[in-house]
Amino acid sequence: MNNISEKPDEDFQSNDNEKNISSKGENELYNELIKKFETTQVIAHNTDHTANSIPLGSFCFAVSFILYGFYECKVHKDEDNILYMVILFFGGIGQLTAGIFEILKSRTYPATLYITYSLYFLSFYFAKKNDIFNKADVSKIYFGTWIFLGAPLILLSLRINLFFLIQNISAVAFFVIKTIGYCCDSGPLKGVISGILELVAGFSSIYICFGQILNQHFSGTILPTIPFKKNNEVDKME
């Protein structure tokens, strides 16, 4: 009778051992899966299908500055409506559009740059159309204010590349010369010298435009941008 009563206890013990073994196996499998999840690299697929808008913004900036620079350098003498239509649509609306797309791409510097200068060209267009620049005091305040608005962009471009730096230095220098020209009532400062600075800013911007297009199209360095910081938000190949 004693042997018969002990058999169920042995069965229970064997069942418990099997449960312990199976639970240990499950724990080991679970731990292995956790380790695999922790060590496996996550591959993030790029879902951004919007085009690079830096060439558009740089092209619009360049066209507006170059055309008005030619006018101030007396290459063409007529201050006609075509010139102001280019400033409105390219310098104003075109750069604003590029800046909005740069915001969508989470690129802070070019978004700030293009929206800032689009507002400059829009305000310049409406000031010209309403003969506001005929008042000397208004002109001094206007161009003098843009010195302080454009100067921080010079510091920010020190983390991008050489041609953005040249573009911003030339643009701010243009505002400085314009302000001095209106303060001193100097024709050359308001005209030819400021026009040369506009041309420098414009041609450096057109270099940025075509450099971005060619470098990305051929997936290499066709036009070197001379970056100050590797893998900055502007010079990345996308």
Please, could you describe this protein's structure?
The protein has 238 residues and is mainly alpha-helical. It has a domain at 54-217: Serine Threonine Protein Phosphatase 5, Tetratricopeptide repeat (Alpha Horseshoe), CATH 1.25.40. The protein has helices at 2-39, 54-72, 81-104, 108-129, 136-157, 162-184, 187-217. α4 (108-129) packs antiparallel against α5. The model has no long low-confidence stretch (mean pLDDT 84).
**Span between N and C termini?**
84 Å
Helix content, binned percent: over 70%
As for the CATH topology of the domain at 54-217, it is Serine Threonine Protein Phosphatase 5, Tetratricopeptide repeat
Output the structural class. mainly alpha
Count of distinct strands: 0
Percent of sequence in beta strands: under 5%
Please tag this protein with its features.
238 residues; mainly alpha; Serine Threonine Protein Phosphatase 5, Tetratricopeptide repeat; 7 helices; 0% strand; elongated
